[in-house]
Design brief:
The protein contains five helices and eight strands. With 149 residues, the protein is α/β, with parallel strands linked by helices. It has one domain: STAS domain (Transcription Regulator spoIIAA, 2-Layer Sandwich), CATH 3.30.750.24. Strands 1, 2, 3, 4, 5, 6, 7 and 8 form an eight-stranded mixed beta sheet that branches. Helix 1 packs parallel to helix 2. The longest helix is centred in the N-terminal third of the chain and has 16 residues. The radius of gyration is 14 Å and the shape is globular. The termini are close together.
């Protein structure tokens, strides 16, 4: 998937036709992908592209925040399984931050829900990845940039 068809600047990838926005940030050294808007086959392709790019760059632990995403059929998340399996092959993990409603919808996806972990906040996910005893009170966030290869 070429990023040239998307508006991509400063770690933000948007596609107004499909109504989604993807942001990539670095929090405490962990890539955080923020997804807002409509999850469609096109947005899932963009997310797969981003996950694979992060994996190729050696990032095997990441957070995907879907609190502001919506979808008619959450089974579309199964299309992320191959990219998530590539991370797990390197003993990494993918932590999803999701609202209670989204969590209930996704946790019913038999295969997918076994591949990922869920958190209710970014500090909780960071603490899990870094194996901290408790969630950090303050997070250090840095901008990341998506680069066309």
């Amino acid at each position: 998937m070429a990023l040239s068809s998307d508006n991509c600047a400063g770690g933000i990838m948007t596609r107004s036709i499909d109504g989604y926005e993807i942001r990539l940030k670095n929090t405490e050294g962990v890539p955080v992908i923020y997804i807002a808007g409509n999850l469609s086959s096109n947005s899932i392709k963009a997310i797969n592209f981003l996950i694979n790019g992060l994996c190729d760059a050696g990032h095997f632990n990441m957070i995907i925040d879907i609190q502001h995403a919506y979808c008619k059929n959450w089974a579309i998340m199964n299309k992320l399984s191959n990219a998530i399996c590539a991370i797990k092959e390197h003993y990494g993990s993918v932590n999803f931050i999701a609202s209670k409603d989204i969590f209930q919808s996704i946790s019913g996806l038999e295969g997918f829900s076994k591949l990922v972990k869920f958190a209710i906040s970014e500090p909780e996910a960071i603490a899990r990845i870094k194996r901290l005893i408790r969630a950090p009170e303050k997070l250090h966030k840095l901008n990341a940039h998506l680069v066309e290869s």
